[in-house]
Design goal:
Strands 2-1-3-4-5-6 form a six-stranded mixed β-sheet. Strand 4 and strand 5 form a beta hairpin. The protein contains four helices and six strands. It has a domain of 109 residues: Rossmann fold, CATH 3.40.50. The chain is of the alpha/beta class.
Length: 160
C-alpha cells in the first residue's frame, strides 16, 4: 500500500514560520558596527567621477549633523566612500598607475546606483554600505544618505 506524504499542520506551520523568519533576516539592513556608531568624523572619498555627488554628500552631512567632516583621511574616524562600481582616480602626471588591488571583491554596484560605504580609516575595511539610485551626478528619489540615516534610526530604536 502506498501512502502520500503530506506534513501535518504542526510541521506545515513550522515550515512557514522558518521561511518568513529567514525572509525577514534577509530583508533587514546590516546592523551598524560599534566603530560606526562611535565615530564622529568622516573623510569623503569620491570614486564616482562626479563632483556633484560629493557636494551633495557634504550638504546632506552638514544638514544631518551626525558627522563632522575631517580635513584629511588621517584625521577622520571613518572614510565615507562613494563609488559606482567603476573606480575613477586622477593620477598626477609622472606618477605610476596603481596596481590592481588584491583586496576581496565587493558586491557589484548595479548600473544607475551609487554605493555609500563607511570604511575603517586605517585598514580601509568596509564596515557598512548601502546603495542609492543615481543618474550620473543626479540623485534620484530622496537623498543620497537616506539609507545611512535609516540605519542610525534603526540602531537607536534597538537601544530602547
Amino acid at each position: 500500500m502506498r501512502k502520500n506524504f503530506f506534513p501535518g499542520p504542526g510541521i506545515s506551520l513550522s515550515i512557514v514560520v522558518l521561511y518568513f523568519a529567514g525572509w525577514n533576516a534577509w530583508a533587514q539592513p546590516p546592523a551598524l558596527p560599534q566603530a560606526v556608531v562611535n565615530a564622529h568624523t568622516v573623510y569623503i572619498k569620491n570614486e564616482t567621477g562626479f563632483t556633484d555627488l560629493e557636494y551633495t554628500t557634504i550638504l546632506e552631512l552638514n544638514k544631518w549633523g551626525h558627522f563632522e567632516l575631517a580635513e584629511s583621511r588621517e584625521k577622520a574616524d571613518l572614510i565615507l566612500r562613494l563609488d559606482s562600481g567603476t573606480r575613477v582616480r586622477l593620477v598626477p602626471e609622472g606618477e605610476a598607475i596603481p596596481a590592481a588591488s588584491s583586496a576581496p571583491a565587493e558586491d557589484p554596484v548595479p548600473p544607475g546606483y551609487t554605493r555609500i560605504a563607511l570604511l575603517e580609516q586605517k585598514t580601509g575595511r568596509m564596515l557598512w554600505s548601502g546603495k542609492h539610485k543615481t543618474e550620473g551626478s543626479k540623485v534620484k528619489g530622496g537623498h543620497l544618505l537616506d539609507e545611512l540615516r535609516e540605519a542610525f534610526r534603526d540602531y537607536e530604536k534597538g537601544k530602547r
